[in-house]
Amino acid sequence: MSHPHRLRLPSPAGPPLSGHLPFADAPGVSDPIAVTSRWLTRGGRPWFPVSGEFHYSRCPAGEWEEELLKMKAGGVTAVASYLIWIHHEEIEGRVRFDGDRDLRRFAELCARHGLDFIPRIGPWSHAEVRNGGLPDWVVARDCVPRTDDPVYLDAVRPWFAAIARQLDGLDRAHGGPVVAIQIENELYDQPGHLLTLKRMAQEAGLSAPLWTSTAWGGVQLPPDELLPLYGGYTEAFWTEADGGWPDTCRKHFFFTHQRDDEGIGSDLRPVRVRGSEPDAFADRFPWATCELGGGMAVSYHRRPYVDPGDIGALGLTKIGCGSVWQGYYMFHGGTNPAGELSTLQESHATGYPNDLPVLTYDFQAPLGEYGQYRRTYHELRLQHLLLADFGHLIAPMRSTLPDRLPDGQFDRDTLRWAVRGDGTSGFLFVNNHQPHERLPEHPETSFTVEFPSGGGELTLPGTPVTVPSGAYFCWPLRLDVAGLRLEWATAQPVCTVDVDGRTVLVLAATDGVAPELALDAATVAAVHTPSGAVTPVGDRLLVTGLRPGTEALVEVDTAEGGRVGLLVLDAATARTVYRGEAWGAERLVLSGDGVVFDRDEVRLHGSGTATSFAVLPAPERAAVVDGVRAEAVTDGVFTRYAVPAARAVEASAPRVTLVRAAGPAPESVTGVLGRASVPADKYFDTVAAEYHVEVPEGLPPGTLLRLRWSGDVGRAYVADTLVADQFCAGRVWDIGLDRLPADALRAEGLRLRVLPLHAEAPVHLPERARDARETAAVTQAEWIPRHTWSVRAS
């Protein structure tokens, strides 16, 4: 039985409002940034930024540059970072911008590598930091923080001045990277104070074309002064332990035009459920985001596990909903610095509703606490490549929903889809994935999209298909590719690359759906396909039977005399695609490991399991890997090069010795809002199981110790210094050895202490960690070597 789905695109809307907001770029810049009521522009062209949060003060400064390059290779175009006040001025009057706090150097590194920078200047940040980032000495003053209390403002003013000195000359007027500045965070009911802070920041000398504010929770903003930014998370650590999957997270897996998420930050303010009520700023501002969840933190009482597919589905769905700015929190995890006066994490001890780990702020992010590549990174990179080439088309396109919509947030049977279109072309979005609850497959599915003003309609694909359970994808509709009109493809556009003077569009096949390309016959002179068939159907040529992969290049001579390639990769290979400037040209690199592009060098990051990488177009000169000329072989249209084997880790497995078995789990204690609190420090000395890990000489730089364990809280020490920690949530526990004091580590090894979790503790655990209660054990340990290969053209 066929299941057709129909949608009619509305007539094109009139031009958006422009010039109605008091935002202005620096005079004379070559690519001025502006805001219309529906999208952003840069250099007069629609602009679709991708921002990723990376807290420099939570990462060693020596690692910043490579981690920024990883973010750029992942498709991030702007780096956002909280400037966490307590990290810089824990002691009043001693403002530190040295070492890992060197804000200016971080911003300069962004500029060096073509990344925009978005400082989120606070003064209150949240960020799961002590006092939300306010230093203790500010909290101790006789004032009301986060208001226009003069005593509070007197404390803030020098902090803003210090930031301005650090960023002096890095604004747009001087060719700098600062494109936006966020004021405060999650302040929903103080519009006057937000305006005061903006004026104070400007008076201090800060400037940017965009001034922003978080806008969730029914926020009140000073009219037209701050660009509202939204968010959405797949899970939440801040809700109750027994609350199940929050409805405010569930809704993000549906196509909707509601921007607000009343659930974010709801532990610190009243929840005002807005349902389908229109968002207050939708008529004057575009739908921009700064906190799409790139992962999720783990609190003591609630420990979510985030699957990479959850993040991928969230991101793609938001594009289909109408987002014109994909902003992720976090994109790179981190580690809290050691405080001089106290620990610096959010905790019950400071009156906050959630106890967080002392050190780790990994956030299950696409790039982990130690720069680990996660599958989420590859899921999102695929989408960011799409936006890099086609974001200027997508941004002005309105999102349209079908007439048949899901019947509420618990409808798992109605197919979720939407189209962004401009009246003549568009992109079709489908999401058949959500966390926790498997969505059914949809057999015999087809889509009919009716274009307005005599534009006719498209019905695709030629033969109905099954939309697999767990699938999420974007298919093009009437996409122009260098003079070829691609009427549709049942494959997702990835990016384009120039190969021998022709444009090659790379597409990613959808797992479980046979790729089909429909070409407008009027734009085609000839078609050559390596497999399958080309069949005339009306005024179209239908290409079917392709076997996706590196050989699946459909070559088209256009009616205008041009040449176009359509390369359809299988889904797994598509997730290994990187694009960047290398050896004098823009190239694609296929690698199962990480790839960064750094001027005339490409670096591969991996554990030594990958044995090769592939390039398109191949460099004219031979590829040299770590100084050795690499053997080259043909892999479809790519050229594949061998990678030398990484040096093996000398110790085959870590020596982990049980020193003391765990005692009885401590009774659970509750704190703020009646939520479970982290057990007192004394229990780590008396009740925790203790292990000793011998760390041998000769481990390669970058080696991680990876632990599989069960229990409640794990802490790692070198001598008596806490160096790593984690709450058990069914995830591996990685510890980066390079960040530990080397001499003491070699002399004394690493001590692990693992507390058991009481059977009755009011703690939410994901399904994969349900057996952790009343156990405290390290069950497996391994060294994870990390190697970097340098690739140059000789």
UniProtKB/TrEMBL annotation:
InterPro entries: Betagal_dom2_sf, GH, Gly_Hdrlase_35_cat, Glycoside_Hdrlase_35. Residues 1-23 are annotated as: Disordered. Residues 41-382 form the Glycoside hydrolase 35 catalytic domain. SUPFAM superfamilies: (Trans)glycosidases (SSF51445). Signal peptide: none annotated. Belongs to the glycosyl hydrolase 35 family. This is Beta-galactosidase. It comes from Streptomyces pseudovenezuelae.
